[in-house]
């Protein structure tokens, strides 16, 4: 993300706030599916879940991500806080939601690029269903997720229900910018969103 990235990705959290007031959104366009259709994310079995523990690192081998995680919350204007540009190699965990591995939709955000080049989620759009995401947590457990779907949607059509909607399984949503870069607005027009769920039998502890 360049320039006004905090405003651009802030639409994500505006969507979260709207969900609390019963706002509805259009059915998003899912480009890569694994569970048989765009409504399938709501029917993933509950499966296992972990006690809440803040994430400290995320690894996505298929796209070469191995990055530290920092907490982000809300700005005064209601937009989501994102990692500062001098930490464009970090991901941000939205701490007002579930921790990765706990039940519910955990949300992590990262920059697509900065003024110096590619950032942590520059290749997020290349993920495909079945890819693995490993999140190391403060309690030294490692939560392993399986990618279910990826979509790219215009920011003004952000799929609030899919990202923040209540689910009983331990879900993970990774978000960055994508699409065409608008030189006038100094922002990308779309959001890239990856959906994943905690896999069974793959929660293990990292070395001390």
UniProtKB/TrEMBL annotation:
UniProt keyword terms in alphabetical order? Hydrolase
Q: Where are the transmembrane segments?
A: none
Keyword rRNA-binding among UniProt keywords: no
**Gene3D superfamilies this protein is in?**
Sortase
The superkingdom of the source organism is: Bacteria
Give the matching InterPro entries. Sortase, Sortase_dom-sf, Sortase_F
Q: Which Pfam families match?
A: Sortase
The reply on keyword Cytoplasm is no
Where does this protein have coiled-coil stretches? none
Name the record gives this protein:
Class F sortase
**Organism whose genome encodes this protein:** Actinomadura vinacea
